[in-house]
Amino acid sequence: MNPEDPVSTHHVQDDDLQLYILGRLSTAQVDAFERHVLQCSECKTRLAATARFVAQIISLKRGDGRSDKRADQRFRTSDNGFLRCLAPLMLDRWPVQVIDVSRNGLGLLVPTRLAQGALVQVHIGDVFALGEVRYSHQITEHQFRIGIRLGDLVRGKE
What we know:
Elements: H1 14-21, H2 27-39, H3 41-62, E1 75-76, E2 80-87, E3 89-101, E4 105-110, E5 119-124, E6 127-140, E7 143-155
Antiparallel strand pairs: 1-3, 2-3, 2-5, 3-4, 4-7, 5-6, 6-7
């Protein structure tokens, strides 16, 4: 896929699917990638399948026997970022406010309800966090507090 060609007829490469999920594409590459995926049902299906695969790998790395209760101390913060839901695939990008962090998780305020178990990518500064939604509680009509169990952190490219 060529970031210079916004209506590329070529399908995205498998490597690009993984790099997108891990937050390793440049801003220009993300823009071209998302424009293509919005128009291409085959690539949209492949992205969703790749995201489910990544979620399974994260689950295996973490182990399924862990308790849902946090044992780690939480630290309050007010950082802002963006969130994408990768599995189930939703191409929206929502602004989020990070309200607390721990070694293994994030507490976020988001404008939409997300299902427990959803794989999400949270972008804060130059860091991309991959994780799983553990809970989603409605606070107001358009605000939800969600808890994310972190699976992986990577530094992205801008």
